Amino acid sequence: MEKNAAMTLLSVENLRVAVEGEEILKGINLSIGTGEVHAIMGPNGSGKSTLSHVLAGRDGYQVTEGRVLYKGEDLLAMEPEERAQAGLFLAFQYPVEIPGVPTVSFLKHAMNSVRKAKGLNTLDAFEFKKIMDARLADLQIDNSMVRRPLNAGFSGGEKKRMEILQMALLEPELTILDETDSGLDIDALKVVADGVNAMRSPDRTTLVITHYQRLLNHIVPDRVHVLAGGRIVRSGDPSLALELEESGYGDMVTAA
User: How far is CA 232 from the centre of its chain?
Assistant: First the structure.
């Protein structure tokens, strides 16, 4: 199937969302085809992270209007774990530290939970280690990281590397990167981008949410959308990101 004939994987229709009574998203419309990479850019406070959290099912967000279809199903009716089992993965801007939980145990449990939901056999310790070691080598991540508690004491770059490792192991159908480039140096940024690019395929879709254009130098999107004032105010090809880098968001924020 040609890219321009890709089937719709995610459809967001007139989505309005409030937080503690304040409307943050004011009618989002977005359609992403299977195998495509879309980028959402916008200034701070425009609603980018709110959109990612609503898609992932985080508490504290009230959907007041609209709907979200994922593979034709009502995404908003699913529990967060059901969304993950259905192939949705969110890479957080600020990954959570979980002291006392070994990273390798967390990864094995997460991977087997997804496999069980798909009707596949769960992996024993030996089978899982074989797969994990291969992914660690692919991503150039030191094996010592997975023997530490999950994200505890990790640097910002290490936390982002760990999320890319999770993505590589879970092989999600839809990956949402919520400002994954935030706080990364150029080496860590390249590791993240290489991990995402290695996963690109006609069966996997990525939504990149970012404030800056620099990540899109490494992960080149098919479409770029500008989110301002709780609405998508403009969409275009990758050249739109370069335009924003030069001119900023001022005019679009004023228009929104």
Answer: 18
Residue carrying the six token digits 């850019």 = 41
Asked if 108 and 125 count as a contact pair (C-beta separation under 8 A), the reply is yes
- Cα distance between residue 135 and residue 226, in whole Å: 34
- For residue 89, count other CB atoms closer than 10 A to its CB: 22
Q: Which CATH class is domain 8-255?
A: alpha beta
Distance CA 84, CA 65 (A): 23
Query: Would you say the C-alpha torsion 166, 62, 21, 255 has a positive or negative sign?
Result: positive
Q: What per-residue string of b and e applies to 120-131 under the rule 16 or more CB within 10 Å gives b? A: eeebeeeebeee
* CB distance 136 to 87 below 8 Å: no
> What are the tens digits of pLDDT across the range 176-187?
998 877 767 777
Decide if 102 contacts 147 (C-beta within 8 A): yes
Q: How far apart are CA 236 and CA 79, in angstroms?
A: 33
Segments of the chain with pLDDT less than 70: 1-6, 183, 249, 251-256
Total length of the chain: 256
Sequence spans of domains, the chain = 8-255
| Helices vs strands, H then E, count in the chain | 8, 12
Task: Please report which residue ranges of the chain form alpha helices under DSSP H.
Answer: 48-56, 80-85, 103-117, 125-139, 156-170, 186-199, 239-247, 250-255
Contacts of 105 (CB under 8 A, 6+ apart): none
Q: What is the per-residue DSSP string for 20-59?
A: TTEEEEEEEEEEEETT-EEEEE--TTSSHHHHHHHHHT-T
